[in-house]
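Aim 2, interim progress. The first record below pairs a target sequence with its structure tokens.
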Amino acid sequence: ACMLLKVVHIINHIDARELGFLFPLSDRELFHRLEERTIAKLARLRERGLPIVEVSGSRKLKDSLVTKLLSKRETLAAQIFDKLRFRIVVESADAVVPLLLGLTDEVFPFNYIVPGQSRNQIVDFAAFVRRQPALAHLGAALAEPLDLPGESSPQGRLNEFSGTTYRDLNYVVDVPVPIPDDRVDRNVSSGPQGLGRITFVLVEFQLLDVPTATANERGENTHDRYKARQLTQVASRLRCIPK
């Protein structure tokens, strides 16, 4: 059953990507539509009682894309996963997991989270599972062990330019976005060539609690120091200075 679901998921994803190429929709328009939908759904989660205290969306500007690519081995903008990002802050660390569950209910299916592009330095997943009577007995049956490398480490998987005490829960999602009705031929119920009416946009989600967000804005964790370390790396690469 899982393999059949994976096959369907892959076929749907390939069709949706092809549909995105066929329709004349710019990244700007897709980003705008996704931002509106996401903000509305986060408002719904807040109404459901989730203690969301801050929501902000941002798009990476062209100069930031150039700087980021110069500082890394990647050379293609297509490999940048945070062109569109949402930063969501809740009152306490205990609310981070309920927020994540709420997002998978309202904003995106969990199977669209991009493998290998997540970072968790807030939630101790192993301890969380063991504390839940309904989950504790399932730990041994998971495909991956509870204590994945880096999950319980205070350092976790840091961005190379972040401060050593920077913390967040960060992941990338290929979020499904419906093609607007006014862009679909009314004589074709499911888009051209039967490709459906859904395309995808890569989005980075950053989840934080208030104490962590406050600590991330101090000392070596500030954005100015992050950019300074990044620019130092760029200067080193441009001048071909060996480390």
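The second target in this work package is listed in the same format:
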Amino acid sequence: MGVGTLTFYSPEYDSYAALGHGISDEDSKELIEVGEGEIYDAKVIAVTKGRNDYPGELKGFLNETLQYGDIDVNSKNGIYGSYSGDFNFSTREKIEVASKNEVQLGKAQILCTIDESQEVKAYDIDIVKTSTSYFSATQGMIIKVRDEELIQKTGGIIQGMSGSPIIQNGKLVGAVTHVIVC
């Protein structure tokens, strides 16, 4: 088990998407077939900052008494399922999902929780490359973190931030999926 991020919740369908990539077997790297699975509340308890030879990670505490939903699908684009938790999403702003051709190079933000405050904050990034190929279902963009607070605390994108929504011009344009270690 690991910590990941809920990308979006659809109140219309009581469904969610998370991670932005599938859950794979550690050894074979093949997607794990989901027979059953659940998502739970998790709290960030520590951050291991990324560096040139290590991707860093969010360390979390999984609260198995607060089940928020079931995992119905594990695909290369993330996990999807039905939401049954009691989190009050009405306090969150609803946003539209952008079409692929609306994604532009330039300024954007990621939303994530990176410390014990459990606060979801927006951090500035740049979208530096996009792929408009409809054959490329994953890794459709490359982003660069430019937010000094996020760089100071994490070194950039770290493990556990997978699924963090990418927002541009007030619309959801994607999700963080992978860490590139330079």
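The first strand starts at residue 6 and ends at 10. This observation will shape the mutagenesis plan for the next reporting period.
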